[in-house]
Write a structure and sequence with these properties.
single chain; five-stranded antiparallel sheet; alpha+beta; Beta-Lactamase; about 45% helix; WH_DNA-bd_sf; Heat-inducible transcription repressor HrcA; three-stranded antiparallel sheet; repressor; Arc Repressor Mutant, subunit A; Enolase-like, domain 1; WHTH_transcript_rep_HrcA_IDD; 3 domains; about 15% strand; stress response
Length: about 375
């Protein structure tokens, strides 16, 4: 990872002003365009020198020799991480619109999420993406043990999504001094029912990961042979079910983005972005479900230009955050637009909408 660029106050001010000016105009920024903002405190020559320094540090660049400067991906990164403050005005506005236009109590959750995506795209001018919620930790509805042949069982687990998982369990041979008869089907059936009852009583409504806390001694010594093999089988099932899977994504604002932003004027770029949104959602979903664990108080992940792992999106910025049921993240919101994005508005809109959806789920 590159060492963060350290800027003094003047350099920060010029970078911030350049970014803001370019976001508004979409035209390279010259020193004369910034003189009015700093006048009379700073001369045009001083601003040119600072812009030259920022260019040498890779934060600005000149698209043409005679043109002004344009922020690079690194310049936007410094702006987002060090200089920008999310807009409280944008947060209040989206909070008010969500309350006025959505009916969290009367509408289905799907309708609320779809409405939230439309509001986000309308207020921001960018593409909004909102996923349906999912349970990131599968919970158990029912377990059953069934004998399939001598010495082999099948453990069947029905999850809260009604998805069924199963695993074959090979039983160890009973010790030679054991009183158990391997040829007594009635005894085995009774023991399997006792085990099934035990597992249901302790795991129903909980995750398979809770198998680690089971006290198998409650069953008595005659069930010791089952404990280790079942513990391992349940752990294997838990690994299979713990990974989140992609889900439906509501997308809004594509036409408006293509119309409003000159960065999307090239047909080839538009086609590749549309392909990702329509046909490659399985690759897009993991990107917008991930929140920034290193963002401090800021709960968003901001991927700027070349930071995006998907090639068609490397001329864009993707901002994402998650909404929660209780303390568990169950869904996500994203915003896709040009790197020339109004970051302070976009981040405030996403965080406030995520709070609204989290509150809606908590009250349902």
């Amino acid at each position: 990872m590159a060492t963060p660029v350290k800027l003094n106050n003047r350099q920060q001010q010029v970078l911030s002003a350049t970014v803001r000016q370019y976001i508004v105009t979409a035209r390279p920024v010259g020193s004369e365009a910034l003189v009015e903002e700093f006048n009379p405190r700073v001369s045009s020559a001083t601003i040119r020198n600072v812009m030259g320094y920022l260019e040498r540090e890779g934060l600005l660049y000149q698209p043409h020799t005679s043109a002004g400067r344009v922020p690079s991906d690194s310049g936007y990164r410094v702006y987002v991480d060090q200089l920008m403050i999310p807009s409280e005005e944008a947060a209040r506005r989206v909070d008010r619109v969500l309350a006025q236009q959505l009916d969290a109590e009367g509408w289905s959750l799907e309708a609320v999420l779809h409405g939230a995506a439309q509001i986000l795209s309308t207020l921001s001018g960018y593409i909004a993406l909102v996923t349906m919620p999912q349970s990131t930790v599968a919970q158990v509805r029912h377990l059953q043990l069934v004998q399939i042949d001598p010495g082999r069982l099948m453990l069947i687990v029905v999850l809260d999504s009604y998805k069924t998982q199963s695993v074959v369990v090979d039983l160890p041979k009973a010790p030679a001094d054991s009183a158990q008869s391997p040829d007594d089907p009635e005894l085995l059936e009774r023991e399997l029912q006792v085990l099934s009852n035990f597992l249901n009583a302790h795991l129903r409504g909980r995750s398979l990961g809770d198998v680690a806390s089971l006290d198998w001694s409650e069953l008595g010594r005659e069930f010791e042979q089952y404990a280790n093999v079942l513990r391992g089988s349940l752990a294997d099932l838990e690994r299979r079910t713990q990974s989140p899977v992609s889900t439906q994504i509501f997308i809004s604002g594509v036409a408006e983005v293509l119309r409003r932003h000159p960065e999307f004027s090239e047909l080839h770029q538009v086609q590749t972005i549309l392909h990702v949104l329509e046909a490659e959602q399985d690759q897009l979903w993991p990107l917008i479900f991930e929140a920034d664990s290193e963002g401090g108080d800021r709960r968003v992940m901001v991927r700027i230009g070349s930071e995006n792992p998907l090639e068609p999106m490397r001329g864009c910025t993707l901002i994402s955050t998650t909404y929660h049921r209780g303390s568990v993240p169950v869904g996500s919101l994203g915003m896709l637009g040009p790197t020339r994005m109004m970051y302070e508005n976009a981040i405030a809109l996403l965080e406030t909408t995520a709070d609204y959806l989290s509150d809606t789920l908590s009250q349902s």
